[in-house]
């Protein structure tokens, strides 16, 4: 077995075995706490530039399949696992994770103490790191300290589609939307399609004019990698959409971009939220949902009062219950809202999926010409009859 090392920016070194592709890679070391969903994680464009360590010790058990990819390729800069499955056991599996990582050139390391690594990152914060099966620790550390930092990194254009494309509605088409692809996952248009929404996906650098050109019923802002403070082009596009008063819904990076478009700041969290069971309070409905997260930055906004913006007041609609981080925004005088977590899940629980229905409700009320603001009163009911 070929050896490999993981070296953190502060010099801490872990020794293990090469996993996936051999070679050398650098990126931001982060940990993800989901016990399932490694295929979705690896193919989520939001992880571009990051070396992802899985805290669940046994990874690869269900292999890989042809259906669970969230984009056209794997984007992680590197992959760290404790104990890879020796062989997959799942009826949907078409290959092993190790082979798939190699096919995508993802350099990984296995057999290291991922609990110690996670505690280190939790205490010291996410930091640059490298994995190598060919360099010694000193040489790798030189590469790590020369690597680009996540703060200030503009990565959405590197993962976005270059060409617009359309995802048709399933059944009768009720609405057409333009989606700004900052790193969109396939699960998102799929959720919208099931609600009768046709999604026109546009490149990350699309302007407001381009987003609005076809007269869409609404505009969607996707998740995506990098620092929202570096994506001024997307902020300008969103301001144009707000000026046009077109219904707008954003997820994760989209939440951060909406926040910036409203004049709010963003900041880097110490180690971020990456997992499938993060409790979030929806202050509009008063319910707590267990949600899927993947973010290292967050919006800076007061929790206790609405903020005045050039587009009217905005309030914090969702709050993370682990740490009081802003997890959603709702414009009170404009048809715009967003969440920091992932209603499309993939992977993760489906608690938040009805937020897509809220977007549809918002477009419906805009079409009727009703007075509308970002968070239509929650009228959707889940299977227990509870309002969400
Ligand atoms: N999933 C996302 O959209 C992540 C947004 C942003 N890159 C962050 O790390 O916070």
UniProtKB/TrEMBL annotation:
Pfam families: CPSase_sm_chain (PF00988), GATase (PF00117). It catalyses: L-glutamine + H2O = L-glutamate + NH4(+); hydrogencarbonate + L-glutamine + 2 ATP + H2O = carbamoyl phosphate + L-glutamate + 2 ADP + phosphate + 2 H(+). Gene3D superfamilies: 3.40.50.880, Carbamoyl-phosphate synthase small subunit, N-terminal domain (3.50.30.20). Residues 2-132 form the Carbamoyl-phosphate synthase small subunit N-terminal domain. Pathway: Pyrimidine metabolism; UMP biosynthesis via de novo pathway; (S)-dihydroorotate from bicarbonate: step 1/3; Amino-acid biosynthesis; L-arginine biosynthesis; carbamoyl phosphate from bicarbonate: step 1/1. It is an enzyme of class 6 (ligase). The keyword Flavoprotein does not apply. L-glutamine binds at residues 46, 224, 226, 253, 256, 294, 296-297. GO terms for biological process: 'de novo' pyrimidine nucleobase biosynthetic process; 'de novo' UMP biosynthetic process; glutamine metabolic process; L-arginine biosynthetic process. GO terms for molecular function: ATP binding; carbamoyl-phosphate synthase (glutamine-hydrolyzing) activity; glutaminase activity. Residues 368-388 are annotated as: Disordered. Composed of two chains; the small (or glutamine) chain promotes the hydrolysis of glutamine to ammonia, which is used by the large (or ammonia) chain to synthesize carbamoyl phosphate. Tetramer of heterodimers (alpha,beta)4. Belongs to the CarA family. This is Carbamoyl phosphate synthase small chain. It comes from Blastococcus saxobsidens (strain DD2).
